[in-house]
Design a protein that fits this description.
The chain is an alpha+beta fold. It is built from 24 helices and eleven strands. The chain folds into five domains: about 1-95, no CATH class; about 95-240, no CATH class; about 260-440, no CATH class; about 440-475, no CATH class; about 485-545, no CATH class. Helix 13 runs antiparallel to helix 18 (about 395-415), helix 15 packs across helix 16 (about 355-365) and helix 17 (about 375-390) packs antiparallel against helix 18. Mean pLDDT is about 80; it is low at about 520-525.
Length: about 550
């Protein structure tokens, strides 16, 4: 309890220090909060020299690695943030001070159940790199292969859960006091962040993702993914092949090596679309720190991808609608874009197509004032999704990851080669993929995919055919029985309907006899006058005996 209070007070102090009150809707706050915040904030007037985005970035850095990681993920939600804030948060770097190297060694030994000297031929105590969640050490296996050992920071999960609890509290506060806060969906953002960062603590999941991505690009000339050493992989420790390449952000070094930058940029786009549409499994954290370049063949450079903790996947329907959406946009068929959003279920079924189409046109048409090669795919998606949210589009986590990844890929591609025409690369790919989803080839692929299941059902077919024929042979008898039962039921209903007036009359007669009696008991009815007795007898006859 005391630790939570202490952490909350520290966060409050940072908010005040960096004047994050600028994000608060003062017109919606109670008067006492306005004056209290204003009075305290006057002590930190110097922070006003920074922009909103700079203040938020510096505050997150001050709060530590968990908040830095949150800022990195938040920077990808450009559909929800001002450009200034998004650009500043994008500057947050992965590198943070490493934790104690002896402690790292102890954690590795506890996870592996042996000393590092027994597990490895060589182990470098000094960390190679350090990030907010884990750090990496170099090692050599006993067979001479060089590897890297990734280890999760100690007690990081406990810290993460405490900080997430505080982030939830702040998100709910922002949502409740501001209309803009509700529009930004802060609670949903924290939920996405919580799932993402907790998954990053499970290195066995990252190892499985890495193995899958490696299998998808096996023998590919586009992307290389390092091999996982499963014998040395645990929940908080992962050992993978050490790669050798130039960081993709080192553009000058790549140029000095004679790398064809246009080819490199276009291959990055091709890798992205291949992952999304052909594999339905894409690396969703493709920032420059996770990408290297193999320059063995400078004219045909090959990417190397690491850190597969965050992966995305799209269903067949999502891929189909997304590809058709992008093609329709670049053909300026806004009606089709609106219809596809509704058919996909991304927006409610009752959305008025005409109004939605008009809103999309007003947002997207100005983009075509620029040459086609200068239109940002990422900004197209942001524009479409922002417009769709005005029509109650629900948050689609898989599309958020896709949007984030596309922005990363596009930004990196144009950094490598400023004249990159993303549409020139994407259009034929999308058209080819859509074409492959119809026609004989699609039918053949579907048959090929379903063939094992059909083969398993094949031995059951004779019995199924025999049962079906037997049922058909007895169908006439069953139909006759059903017809007779129906006729009998109809006759009974008819008789009951004919007798209904008499039964009603019988009830009336009995009721009249009862009322004529001096007492409301059967013994008194017997003593009543002959009229009451006669009415009662008639009632019994009509109600019980009359058919």
């Amino acid at each position: 309890m005391f630790q939570n209070l202490s952490r909350a007070l520290r966060i409050l102090a940072v908010i005040i220090r960096f004047r994050l009150d600028i994000f608060l809707p003062f017109d919606k706050l109670p008067w006492y909060l306005k004056y209290s915040i204003g009075l305290v904030s006057k002590l930190f007037k110097t922070s006003k020299r920074h922009t909103k985005g700079q203040r938020l970035r510096l505050a997150l850095i001050s709060l530590g690695p968990i908040f830095v990681k949150f800022g990195q993920l938040l920077s990808t939600r450009r559909d929800l943030l001002d450009d200034d804030v998004a650009n500043e948060l994008a500057k947050l770097q992965d590198k943070v001070p490493p934790f104690n190297k002896q402690q790292a060694k102890t954690l590795i030994e506890e996870a592996l159940g042996s000393s590092v000297d027994q597990a490895f031929k060589e182990f470098t105590l000094e960390p190679l790199a350090s990030a907010s969640i884990a750090q990496v050490h170099c090692a050599t296996l006993h067979n001479g292969e060089e590897v890297v050992v990734k280890v999760i920071r100690p007690s990081i999960e406990k810290t993460i859960r405490k900080d997430i609890g505080l982030l939830y509290a702040l998100a709910k506060l922002v949502r409740n006091i501001s209309d803009d806060g509700r529009r930004l969906r802060p609670v949903e953002i924290i939920q996405d962040y919580e799932h993402t960062i907790l998954d990053e603590l499970e290195l066995t999941k990252e190892a499985a993702n890495t193995a899958q991505l490696r299998r998808n690009f096996e023998d590919s000339e586009l992307l290389y993914v390092p091999e996982v050493h499963w014998d040395f992989t645990r929940r908080n420790v992962m050992v993978v092949e050490k790669i050798s390449g130039i960081p993709v952000a080192n553009i000058d070094e790549l140029r000095q090596a004679g790398v064809d930058m246009k080819c490199l940029a276009e291959r990055g786009v091709e890798i992205f679309f291949t992952q999304v549409f052909e594999h339905s499994f894409f690396h969703a954290d493709m920032h420059p720190g996770n990408i290297f370049v193999d320059i063995s063949h400078p004219k045909l450079p090959k990417y190397i991808g690491i850190d597969c903790a965050i992966m995305g996947s799209l269903s067949y329907d999502d891929k189909n609608y997304l590809a058709r959406n992008l093609l329709a946009f670049f053909k300026r068929d806004y009606r089709l874009v609106a219809e596809l959003h509704v058919k996909s279920g991304w927006v409610p079924k009752g959305t008025p197509i005409h109004a939605f189409e008009s809103a999309i046109r007003s947002v997207c048409e100005p983009m075509f004032a620029k040459p086609l090669k200068d239109i940002s795919f990422g900004q197209v998606l942001i524009g479409l999704f922002q417009t769709a949210r005005r029509f109650n589009m629900e948050v689609q986590p898989q599309l958020v990851l896709l949007e984030k990844t596309m922005l990363n890929v596009e930004g990196l591609g144009r950094q490598l080669y400023p004249d990159l025409d993303l549409w020139e690369t994407a259009q034929p790919f999308l058209e080819r993929w859509l074409k492959s989803q119809i026609g004989p080839q699609r039918v053949f692929d579907e048959i090929k995919q379903q063939a094992p299941e059909w083969a398993g059902q094949l031995p059951k077919i004779p019995n199924l055919v025999y049962s079906a024929l037997e049922q058909i042979s007895h169908q006439g008898t069953r139909d006759l029985e059903h017809t007779q039962a129906i006729n009998k039921l109809e006759l009974e209903i008819k008789r009951n309907n004919q007798a209904l007036p008499f039964k009603i009359l019988g009830l009336i007669s009995m009721a009249t006899a009862w009322l004529n009696a001096d007492e409301t008991s059967l013994s008194r009815i017997a003593e009543a006058d002959l009229t009451s007795l006669a009415l009662f007898a008639i009632g019994i006859y009509l109600l019980v005996l009359k058919k």
